[in-house]
Design a protein that fits this description.
2 domains, Arc Repressor Mutant, subunit A, 50% helix, Jelly Rolls, 259 residues, 5-stranded antiparallel beta sheet
Length: 259
């Protein structure tokens, strides 16, 4: 799938997808949070998110409109080509494109989106070759100087702890005690770095994990999945899942598995 989104202001989100994601930023600025690291982006940046990487979007302060094109490729598509797999294994999460490179990337994204939308004769083959051209360009792009991600060791350690413990009974208070800082300081620090309150992050992280289990373990009961990801109240899990995804857990599983 390839879409060109109209210029708009995006809200903070946490996401998990099976697909590989490529976001070309034509204009605007903000931050992506990928694998516990913050990546500031701006005009002519290319963001690469690999399959199953937990990631989030953090708006610039004050928020600005972002004009971007997004390409999504399934692992099955990528795995058909050893060359594509090798390129994606080593490319960075963010690349600064020169003006000519940005123009070519925009043309490719718009062409792919048009071919997918119109589905005229030979569209699948055209899309395949245009994505292959894009992948070969990806191999060339990282040879140049790219934006440096922002590392915050304290936040990274907090996120690592959450990643290991989100299915347990953790909270703002328990994490603050563990790292020896006040709750208010932790709350401010976390929201400033990730774009969302810590409690909301833990909730969304649990839902992201539930989405993964719902599709990868289709025989596992939904109530058992709720318990596995950290919910002691099944009704609360159902409400939270629907609020975040727009679907019930059962409905999400049916759509994801094509049932």
């Amino acid at each position: 799938m390839c879409v060109w989104s109209p210029s708009q202001i995006y809200k903070s989100t946490l996401a998990y997808h099976n697909e590989f994601e490529f976001h070309f930023i034509k204009s605007g600025k903000g931050n992506y949070f990928i694998k516990n690291t913050k990546y500031p982006f701006s005009h002519n940046n290319l963001i690469i998110i690999r399959s199953e990487e937990i990631h989030g979007f953090i708006p610039y302060n004050p928020p600005v409109s972002i004009d971007k094109g997004s390409l999504y490729c399934s692992p099955s598509f990528i795995n058909k080509s050893k060359k594509m797999k090798a390129i994606l294994k080593t490319c960075p999460h963010i690349i600064q494109l020169e003006e000519k490179e940005a123009t070519l990337t925009e043309i490719l994204f718009r062409n792919i989106a048009t071919e997918i939308d119109k589905k005229e004769a030979g569209w699948e083959e055209i899309v395949h070759y245009e994505i292959m051209i894009f992948m070969l360009l990806l191999k060339r792009y990282p040879l140049k100087k790219n934006p440096v991600p922002k590392h915050n060791p304290r936040i990274e350690s907090i996120l690592l702890y959450i990643e290991r413990s989100f299915s347990e009974d953790i909270s703002l208070s328990s994490i603050a005690q563990k790292i020896f800082i006040s709750k208010s300081h932790l709350a401010h620090l976390f929201k400033n770095e990730t774009g969302m309150p810590l409690k909301q992050y833990i909730l969304q992280r649990r839902i992201m994990e539930a989405k993964k289990i719902l599709t990868k373990r289709p025989d596992k009961k939904v109530y058992a999945i709720a318990k596995e990801v950290g919910f002691t109240n099944f009704s609360l899990f159902n409400r939270a899942f629907k609020k975040i995804t727009g679907l019930t857990p059962t409905g999400y599983r049916k759509i994801s598995l094509g049932r």
